[in-house]
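Input (Multidrug export protein MepA):
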Amino acid sequence: MKNEQILGTEPIGKLLFKYSVPAIIGMMVNALYNVVDRMFIGQIPDVGPLAITGVGVTMPIMTIILAFAMLVGVGATTNISIKLGQGNKEDAQKLIGNGITLSIVISLIISVVGIVFGENILKLFGASEATLYYAESYIYIILAGTVFNVLAFTLNNTIRGDGNPKLAAIIMVVGCLTNIVLDAVLIFVFNLGIKGAAIATVTSQIVTAVWALMYYIKGKSNLKFKKESLKLDKSLVSAIFAIGSAPFAMQMATSLVQAISNNALKLYGGDLAIGAMATISSISMIFLMPIFGLNQGSQPIIGFNYGAKQYERSNKAFKISALASIVILTTGWLMVQTMPEIIVGMFNKDPKLMDISVNGVRIYLLMLPIIGISITGSNYIQSVGKAKVAMFLSLLRQVILLIPMIVMLPKFFGLNGVWVSQPVSDFLATVITAIVLVKELRSYKVKNEEILEKKVA
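Output:
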């Protein structure tokens, strides 16, 4: 396959640009589904602040859905890259069908559980009597369309792994534009309010899922889809879960943090503090999604070259992506620190909510320039198949360090203690990840030397 030759021979910088730019566009578009919803919801006359707080309460559920999407999508795509690197095209093709089946089965379970126990879950995640109505109005529609959400994410990932990153990006852009147009029409023309935002999101996800599915069904893909591959293969499912478990754990941890954070925000700042966090997390998402796009773009390059024992190339792919992440996030940090009112104002102009959000975002994103090292580092470890170490690194920022901070710091600093928990955790996680990475990268120098010695002999 031409794609295999390119991954193993083309200059790393050129490959990263080719794979990462479409992936970054895809991830930015993916983020805009939530960000645009919150922008429109925050501007709903009279109820904007409460409505955006209602959406803030649903964030842990949205993150759980994303966790399962990443479990299957990232797990399948990374394994496809590794299988292709090893020359095992048959298993690479089977992974497509297994990914589709897993997406559907898992999504249906999430939908049923979420809708049946929705009210109790939302109260557990910080909903008050004032915000419960808005949270339910939004999340029940999202839950009903979960299958399209997860399927779209999984197939967009596999299309990139299949060597067609441009198509994956185009599909996501069309889906996002559909969401934006429908948001405006359903919320403000048909006066459907927060329900309109949810309907717009699900409709756009249906568009992206169906389009991505047709790519395989019509046989346009490099890796061919066969109906037989829909039957789950125990070894392939295990491989998907083994690799996908690191990003899955990170997202589940994020959901847990969001739930704990929502309750701390409610205790120390009231409902509006949860609304502020919804805005802050959206701003954070805008800057972090390019880094996740870099990760997705570098995964097939790192995975293939590691599988082919070209360690120097896989290491170089990581180093370039880490450097790019530092540049992107430093730019974001400068924007947040110098013009927070303009950025926050895109979501809501309520004076009380604005004050809380501006103060919060400056503190919350204080360590933004350095966290790319932590994010790209854990992705590198995951991409070479070291799931346990990758999981530990992924959990550092969101569980092992962050949860104790959220529990302790507000007792001393009140609401500011909730905001400052994230940068403290970011700093410590980055230091630890850097130490692990240095050790890991040095080990490949030894392997390269051994390979060269064998060739000489």
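The chain has a mean pLDDT of 91.
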